[in-house]
Amino acid sequence: MRETTAARYAGTRVQRVEDGRLLTGHGTFVDDVRRPGMLHACFVRSPFAHARVTHVDISAALDLPGVHAVFLAADLNPDIREQWYTSMGKDIPDTPRPALASDEVRFVGDPVALVIAESRYIAEEVFAAAAHVADETIYQQGYAAVPIETRGLVVEWSAGELTIWAATQAPHEVRAFCARLLGLPEQRVRVIMRDTGGGFGQKVIPLREDMCVMLAARKVPAAIKWIEDRRENLMSAGQARHEHGRARMAFAADGEILAAHIDHVQDVGSYPSPWPVGTSAAVGMIFPGPYRIPQATWSTVSLFSNTSGRTAYRGPWQFESMAREVLLDIAARQMGLDPVALRRRNLLGLADMPYVNPCGMPYDHMSLRETFDLALEMLDYEAFRREQHEARAAGRYLGGGTCSYVEPTSTGMGYYATEGATIRIEPSGAVNVYVAGGSTGNSIETTVVQLTADALGVDLDQVATIQGGTAVTPFGAGTAGSRSGSRSRCCATSSARTSAR
Amino acid sequence: MDEVQIRLRVNGLERRGRVEPRLTLADFLREHCHLTGTHLGCEHGVCGACTVLLDGAAVRACLVLAVQAEGREVTTIEGLGTPENLSPVQVAFQENHGLQCGFCTPGFVVSVTALLRDNPDPTDEEIRAGLSGNICRCTGYQGIFKAVRAAAGNTP
């Protein structure tokens, strides 16, 4: 076996392999997919936050020329075989999550009916619709993911096989989820994605509308396309970060942190996905963050509300950083310490590794204090403080702040520990590397090409990558929790070593 | 709904179609002409992803009806460059990290192309104003701003 080749491409600036098509309008996003005779799906949604559904009259809708079908809960929901997400498994205590709302709607935007029509225009016409303790309760407003491309999928049932073109971060999860939902063998569901216009967590798992389109696909004679509009996306595609917490820290007189505690409360809306607890435990586990804190405890509560369900959003446990760092600023002010000095006093450094935080999270290979010092040096913190002082004397207010955090990625458990790469060296010497994909703009195509070129010692332009098709790529959990780059690195590199051998 | 016959030029080619008066220009380009590079992010004139040139002026194709383009000249992202032969604006976006997922990108490229044609040497403030009608969710605007600055240097 040859030794690992020197990295020529990883860590250097290379032109992205995705850019040619994306810059010239030749990408393939889900709404760019057309199928013969394709029909369009559109949801009728609740205008009420909480109401009983006593009767739905679909006759007027069916009378419109071009309307093919109108499905209600009774048409779709009984077909559901199993409904759970791979990341959580089927045995967790989950919220009931009907495809369409049946007798009760629980938030503005709750889908009640699915209209199938020849074009979106017709479909939408249907509903014209210690020494010192810092103690502070910290509130955070709700967020929405808002990718510029809304959600959407095309589902085609043909000759006993289901093909799905999806806007997704995880094509293999779409396949697994759909196979369970419809009770189909996994080999008879194929998911294809090429370009996804941003995800931010919203496209990491199929949600209720996706379920409806999957369920309806076997009941109509052609492919169905559903492309969400922006209003629907803002109403019903999930929310995140509406949470608060009472955060407390105890300090010695010199600013050494002695203990930390957080009581965390989060709004999970009406249909939290993948489950109501979500990542709230991570808020507690990571609350000590990058600091040396001997003792810590935490609690968390998930509350249902008449709003759209809570979904993943860019580090869904992020409240821990916000709460901790705001609390440290408050503590520094109360103790009359410089907020940067207070943090430097407590930051873990390379010499402290390995380390286990008081909630049980193991840390290793982390240069937290060193990174913080480097950032301050780049900023020239002392010069900034002088500038700030002079500005204030002149009546101008300049602010400066820091936020440091530690978070896990590439979780080594279950579904999220899974990723593979297949490398094919073609007769011409051209190299193809196959990975699960799920790129939503995170350049994973370019990354995998760089890594493979380095591992095989070949030129960048000899390597191409095929991603996003469940029929041809190895199983993998896709883009979530900052994992795709690091996970793909392991796979591409180890596959390349095997190939080189 | 009664359909109307329209005739227009798209990227230099004549296109004819029978369309309902309510059909947007964006959907005409995507559904009738199969030019799917014009993207729809909000369908109410906020995000700028669907920007095209109508007789040279940058417009939002979601706010223009196809019938309003009768007899006019439309240029879409597909008319501005190819992967093998990128336009100076497209090259600048690639070289300055001006895109990630690429969904908003066609709208930015079209807007910037019009901006630099009308004002080849913009100030920083003029670049920011020129970009203010387009929303990007991944990249952040610093890379896009740098791309415009670089393209302004390259525009003949």
From TrEMBL, chain B:
Gene3D superfamilies recorded: 3.10.20.30, [2Fe-2S]-binding domain
Transmembrane spans: none
Keywords in UniProt for this one? 2Fe-2S, Iron, Iron-sulfur, Metal-binding, Oxidoreductase
Q: Which GO terms describe its molecular function?
A: 2 iron, 2 sulfur cluster binding; metal ion binding; oxidoreductase activity
Q: Outline the extent of the 2Fe-2S ferredoxin-type domain.
A: 4-80
Q: Which PANTHER family match?
A: OXIDOREDUCTASE WITH IRON-SULFUR SUBUNIT, XANTHINE DEHYDROGENASE IRON-SULFUR-BINDING SUBUNIT XDHC-RELATED
| Protein name (Swiss-Prot/TrEMBL) | 4-hydroxybenzoyl-CoA reductase subunit gamma
Q: Which organism is it from?
A: Parafrankia soli
